[in-house]
Write a structure and sequence with these properties.
This protein is of the alpha+beta class. The chain folds into two domains: 178 residues, Jelly Rolls; 81 residues, Orthogonal Bundle (Arc Repressor Mutant, subunit A). It contains 13 helices and eleven strands. A six-stranded antiparallel β-sheet has the order 2-9-4-7-10-11. Strands 6-5-8 form a three-stranded antiparallel β-sheet, with helices on one face. A hairpin with a 2-residue loop joins strand 5 and strand 6. The N terminus and C terminus are likely disordered. GO terms for molecular function: DNA-binding transcription factor activity; sequence-specific DNA binding.
């Protein structure tokens, strides 16, 4: 993949990618430092979007056009790009309408706080600071770097524990050691997350986050977005990948888990504090998302805490793992 030629399309990018990007919500698991995943095509995140996290993106199948800031270029398998925080981007594959691709890319995402803590703890990590700083404009790596990164990213998909961290370090070392990558967006381009936040979906997501404990009706959110309920329902699912009700329930159950870990409130109080209006629905939704009841989930968390503290007691109602 050559970075020249594509750069000559940059003036067109200013008119072709003038629409406001959407915010992508990157959910890094609580017990992990970064997110590694893959997806096919079409897929809900294939749209003009941004997020606060750094992203390393490797194309494994299909060809097409990709957009990074004010840059437009062509991609093929082996296209390896690093995206800085809040930099809008998108890859659009040339796939006939109606066809599906099982795996289009491998994606690694991590936030600035995590990498800042790593740099503070390990001075050797400072070598990556130049790379991180340059990624604010997007970086395209040479094909040989993409080929070397592929097996590392693929192993990361299923790696557990310290092996994930080892592979993460190996990938960053590969990128640091590679030849100088090509900057994609122009030097004059600046990401403007404050302006992006004015888009319709981001207004809706912000409102939900601030009013999670209150009653949230899809009709009211549709009115906030200036859409009919049916149009809003399709719009919301396209941007989040789930229905409005499931999205709200997921956020409420995640908040409930935080309160359950604190141990200060009983389950009934937690149910109402996170926005459910009856205990049976709360228990049903919790079981659906966590595969266990809230009381059992809290018991296992207490077992985990006791183990970390060197205690041998098993909390009432919990079974010690075998």
């Amino acid at each position: 993949m050559q970075s020249i030629g594509a750069a000559s399309l940059r003036p067109d990018a200013r008119s072709a990618a003038h629409s406001q990007p959407d915010l992508e919500l990157v959910a890094v698991p609580r017990d992990e430092s970064f997110k590694v995943w893959s997806h096919g095509y079409p897929y809900r995140t294939v749209r003009w979007h941004f997020h606060p996290e750094y992203e390393i993106h490797l194309i494994t199948a299909t060809t097409g056009k990709y957009f990074v800031g004010d840059f437009i270029g062509s991609f093929a398998p082996g296209n390896l790009v690093m995206i800085g925080p809040n930099l809008p981007h998108n890859w659009v594959s040339s796939v006939p309408h109606g066809e599906q691709v099982d795996e289009r890319c491998l994606v690694l995402q991590f936030n600035a706080d995590f990498i800042a803590r790593a740099i503070e703890a390990f001075p050797e990590f400072r070598r990556v600071e130049t790379l991180l700083d340059a990624s604010r404009w997007g970086l395209l790596f040479a094909p040989e770097t993409g080929a070397a990164a592929a097996p590392i990213l693929r192993e990361m998909l299923g790696a557990q524990g310290m092996r994930r961290v080892t592979l993460f370090i190996a990938l960053l070392d590969l990128l640091v050691q590679s030849g100088e990558p090509a900057a994609l967006a122009s030097e004059a381009y600046r990401a403007e997350p404050a302006r992006y936040a004015g888009t319709r979906i981001n207004h809706v997501l912000t409102f939900i986050g601030k009013n999670l404990s209150q009653e949230l009706r899809e009709t009211e959110l549709a009115e906030l977005a200036g859409q009919s309920v049916s149009a809003f329902s399709r719009y919301f699912r396209r941007h989040t990948g789930v229905s409005f009700v499931r999205y709200v329930n997921q956020l409420r159950i995640n908040l409930a888990c935080q309160l359950l870990m604190s141990g200060e409130l009983n389950i009934t109080d937690i149910c109402y504090q996170v926005g459910f209006n009856n205990l049976s629905n709360f228990n049903r939704q919790f079981l659906s998302l966590k595969d266990m009841s809230p009381s059992r989930w809290r018991s296992y968390q207490r077992l985990n805490a006791a183990s970390a503290a060197g205690k041998s007691e098993t909390p009432h109602g919990a079974q010690a793992p075998g």
